[in-house]
Structures are given as structure tokens and as C-alpha cells.
Amino acid sequence: MPENRYSPPGADLSLTPVPPRAPWPAWRAVLIGLVVDIGGTTVAGLLIGVVWYVVLTRSGVSAEQIHAEMSVTDRWTAFVIVSTLVGAVFSYLGGFVCNRLAQRADLRLGFVLAALSLAIGFWMSSEIVQPAMFAALSLLTAVSALAGARAGRVVPTA
């Protein structure tokens, strides 16, 4: 009998290792992390503002009161707290994406991303936010970006 016709066909099933993906250039990883941080914070802030406006309008609050609450930047209103926490999440994601794309084990790019985020934040809001509140927001941004970079670091295996 020549061959068992019910046996599976022979094939080379050995797994060939997939070469690791080359890391992205540092400047590109920082730029993409910055887009995630600033862009995500901006888009989420707009969405939070719209939802906040609709909720307050539905609950019978006048347009003047809504404008007064949403334009206050010198104290911690519920709107400011929610926006701050969402901004911190996007700073964390930006740091994570930055270090993961660059495949770095150190936090240097996280520091660069945090510095750029702080510079852009200062440029966008230095005139409308009180100095003490701006210092607290800056600290939260820097810590979030560095925590994300630490979570996204790629540690070489031995």
C-alpha cells in the first residue's frame, strides 16, 4: 500500500521567530505622545463641556449660571475637577504611548513629553488660571506623564 490517504498532509510547521519591531525615532514618539496628551485632553474637554451644559440645562439652570460656573478657573468646581482628572488620564496615555513606541527602558522621553506638555499648557492657560492652581495642575500633568512613561517602558530581557 503506497500511502495512508487518511493521514494529514505533510507540512513544515516549525515556527520561525518574528523579528522584533524596530523602535520609532525619539522625536516621532514624543510627537505622537504629545498629540495623544494635548489632543485627547482638548477633545475630551470639549465633549465634557457639551455634556455638562446639556445636563445643567436639563436640570433647569439658567444660561448665565452655566456660563458663570464653566468660566470660573480660580476655584475647584465640579467641572474643573472632572476636566482635570480627564486631562491627567490623557497625560498618562501620552507618556505611555511615547515610551512604548520608542521602546525605551528609561524615562528621558517622559521628561521631554512632560516639559512640552507643561509649556503648551502654560501657553494656553497662563492668563486664565491662578498661579497656585496652575502649579497644582502642572504637577499633576508632569506626574501623570512620567507615570505613563514608566508604565510604557520596554525593559530588555536577558
Description:
It is elongated and about 90 Å long. It has one domain. The protein is an all-alpha fold and 158 residues long. It is 67% helix and 0% strand.
Strand content: under 5%
- Percentage of residues in helical conformation: 55-70%
The total number of structural domains is: 1
Which residues sit in consecutive blocks of at least 5 with pLDDT less than 50? none
Shape: elongated
Distance between the amino and carboxyl termini: 52 Å
Secondary structure layout:
Elements lengths: L25 H33 L4 H9 L6 H25 L5 H18 L5 H21 L7
Task: Provide a brief overview of the structure.
This protein is 67% helix and 0% strand. It is mostly helical.
Quick tags:
158 residues; mainly alpha; 5 helices; 67% helix
